[in-house]
Amino acid sequence: MLDEHGKAWSYRAKWAYLLFVVFVLLLPVFYIIYISFNEHGFGAAIYEFTVDWYRVVLGDRMLVASLEWTAYLAVGAVASAVPLGLLAAKFCKSSRNKVPFVTLMLMPLFVPADIMGSSLLVFFKNLNGFFEWLSDSLGVTWFYGWFELGFLTALIGQIVYTLPYAFIVILITMSRYRVQQTEAARSCGATAWQAFRDVEFPQIRAGVFSACAFVTILSFNEATRTALLKGGFDTFQNVLVSQMLNIGMSGESYAMAGIMSVIPMVVIGSILIITLIRSDRLERVARAKAAAVMSN
Amino acid sequence: MQADSGVEVVDLSKNYGSVVALKSVSFKIRSGQYFVLLGPSGGGKTTLLRLIGGFMRPSSGNILFHDQDLTSLPPNERPTSMVFQSYALFPHMTVEKNISYGLKLRKLPKTETASKVGRALELVGLKGLNDRMPHELSGGQQQRVQLARSLVLESDVLLLDEPLASLDAKLRKEMCLELKRLQEQVGITFIHVTHNQEEAMTIADRIAIIAGGELIEEGSPRDIYERPQKQFTAGFIGDNNLFEGTVMGQVGSDVKVDLGYARIEVPARESIITEGEEVSVSVRSELLQLVDPDDDSLNRIPATYVEEVYLGLTTSHLVRLSNGTEVVIRQVSEDEGFSKFSSGQEVKIGWQKSSARLHPD
């Protein structure tokens, strides 16, 4: 309890309120998951537990393929956006004038998803046209299809979307890091890379891993930009949205929604639990050492 | 025989755009010397230290270690190690891992590393604290770990950037003596940045006064304190009183100066003084005396007594000259708890001719 003059019941009431808000926010999601386990689907008078809808989803080759594409995109987005976000955060931390830099980095967030998606679509179409013209002019075929809509363009769209989030998450963690520690490492004989690996990264690791989790979730949940830029393949989210718009919600759709909701919750929950266990362990070690010193 | 130049700084300058942080500074530091860069905050001393350490690139000039120009080398390739003001211990490593970090990078065998770390911990008086984390140490202990981490590398030059600034006054005094002892023990060159003149006087073999990005003056602590060459040094070091005046002429080895409200005589300096030149004269507060108002001998100035401030060992008397300048006279406190002077009383201050320093700048 931070306010030592506060009443215990008010402290409990604040927590109860917080949990209530979270419960209300997540109630529709829990309800969808609940329905996804009902053999008779939404609105049925009888509830019979089943995992058949999940079996149907995972037995559908098209859905599994879309799940795979979703995973590939997520891996690609993490592998690109997180290192780029880390580099940008490092540069921002070392620059004197941080506000313009942060503003520029966050700019893509202020552009609506459909506008950004269609802008990228036009951009890639033109770029592809330029490369085809270049190929024809040079009499080679090498530049053909570089920016045709497909995995690469969808990935670039997701990187543009997730990079600002990765950047800001890492930058916040980095703000507690003291640059003197890098200089101290350099003064001990470390190269710039060794100083980053041994001294800086262990202290910003939590931010980098959080950024990975965040980008994964954002990538899984992204539909608009991907739908415009994906070309000939489908992501899980695109299939779900398409199903909802064209044939309405089926038991299969609820199972898909369940999968899409549970995955982020499991990822975030695991990070939280690991972080809590780790900080609890560190606190116990510190207390044990302090007790040993006090008893001397 | 010429003394070995451990570190030599030649015409070193550093600009940040149009801002000049350091202006063509040059000096030499002998190997094994405790050299202090002293000056007011923002004067350029930390910039100078960071340039020596390779954490910044100079705009112009060179840095030589044992007569070898290493200006373009990064910090990890220089024969230096550095102790920072604070926050520089690696918080995720134990004391032992902090100290052994540099040795690990050098890929030393584990047994050798362990023995060197043990010796370094003993040297700084932290034996047995190997497994502590930095946050479990006091400020003084953390600075000792930083020292051990630097000393264990056996570099030629140890750079210390205000290492005692974050410590309380008592601990700072203890650590000052400790640093001096350590330097004598290990025998390497220490370059120490501070704005605290007491700290500088306690530890330095030589002091360089740095202000406004320039090297104002360099010398032994005694020279700097007792015989400051420059007016800035006289104003910065010790408790000096400065009198502005005009040269009336030279009589033998003395210069006559007209202060406007009094005429004084000051020993001449090597530099040529011309009649009518504007000069300043410095006299340390402990060399000034309150004299009899009827005393008309040389170097006596009428003043009005303002107040006394009891400082324990000494008492400061504040007087005001006829032009409004306030002058401090510091004397060893007397047994009597009451003052011989009252506010507004007409008095005279005086000093021995040899106590004054003439500053033509």
Key features?
heterodimer; A: 296 residues; mainly alpha; MetI-like fold; flat; B: 361 residues; alpha+beta; Rossmann fold; OB fold (Dihydrolipoamide Acetyltransferase, E2P); five-stranded antiparallel β-sheet; elongated
Give a short overview.
The complex is a heterodimer of chains A (296) and B (361). In chain A, 78% of the residues lie in helices and 0% in strands.
Pair with the most extensive interface? Answer: A-B, 22 and 32 residues
Strand order of the largest sheet of chain B: 6-7-8-3-9-10
Number of helices of chain B: 8
Q: State mean pLDDT of chain A (0 to 100 scale).
A: 88
Integer tally of domains of chain B = 2
- Helix/strand/pairing category of chain A: mainly alpha
Helix content of chain B: 10-25%
DSSP strand (E) fraction of chain B? Answer: 35-45%
Largest sheet of chain B: 6 strands, mixed
Give the number of DSSP strands of chain B. 20
H-E string of chain A:
HHHHHHHHHHH
Q: Could you name the CATH topology of chain A?
A: MetI-like fold
Q: What is the CATH level 1 assignment of the largest domain in chain B? A: Alpha Beta
Task: Describe the model.
Chain A has helices at residues 8-36, 52-59, 61-94, 98-106, 113-138, 151-174, 179-187, 192-221, 224-229, 236-246, 251-295. With 296 residues, chain A is mainly alpha-helical. The model of chain A has no long low-confidence stretch (mean pLDDT 88). Chain B has 361 residues and is an alpha+beta fold. Chain B is built from 8 helices and 20 strands. In chain B, strand 1 and strand 2 form a beta hairpin. In chain B, helix 2 packs parallel to helix 4 and helix 3 crosses helix 4 (139-151). The radius of gyration of chain B is 25 Å and the shape is elongated. Chain B starts with a strand and ends with a strand. The model of chain B has no long low-confidence stretch (mean pLDDT 90). At the A-B interface, helix 7, helix 8 and helix 11 of A face strand 6, helix 2 and helix 4 of B.
